[in-house]
Amino acid sequence: MTTHQTNAAWGRLEVIAGPMFSGKSEELMRRVRRATIAGVEVAVISHALDTRADLSTVTSHIGVNIPAIAVSDVAALAEVVEAGDYDLVAIDEAQFFGPELVPLVTGLVATGVTVIVEGLCVTFDGDPFEPMPTFMALAEDVLKLTAVCTICGRDAVFHQRIVAGAETGRDGDGPVGATEIDPSHVGGLESYVARCREHFAPIS
Questions:
Q1: Domains and CATH numbers, the chain
Q2: Which sequence positions are flagged as catalytic?
Q3: pLDDT tens digits, residue range 106-128?
Q4: How far is CA 3 from CA 6, 7, 140, 174, in A?
């Protein structure tokens, strides 16, 4: 009879995904607080692009926050985690880091670190938003959250932009795409609403 043994050196990948206003950040904070109480060494990482609140915190839409380290790209994130001896790395708004985040995260998991990635799995156009779909496919645990449609109250798996697509990117050449990493995409209730499948109608 073959005996299967667990390799204790391997970590774990956990994903918290959903549209805007679905409670993703609150769930990330809950897991981080539990780990901290248990004595786990935790690094909470946020993207410097998200300037809706203090860059030194992860802040939810309802104003709850925890301390975080803001970095601008995957290379800077790698420097932070390599400089510390962390058991858990929690990454907020992972979609802002792009697909380049995937090899870094899988590498961390291979060294025994548990990684929680939290972010949008759909764009405001309703398309898959990498790297979250890839993480969802690779993870041991996936929590897919929904918001509340502001029209009918049903489960909302989408969020849509409610401002006209006249914003220009940093180069000033016109509207930026939904998957491009640009400050014009950062916003809250003033820019986005949650929508169910029936009422999702992105504007051009």
A1: 12-145 (3.40.50.300)
A2: 93
A3: 999 999 999 999 999 999 999 99
A4: 10, 13, 21, 60
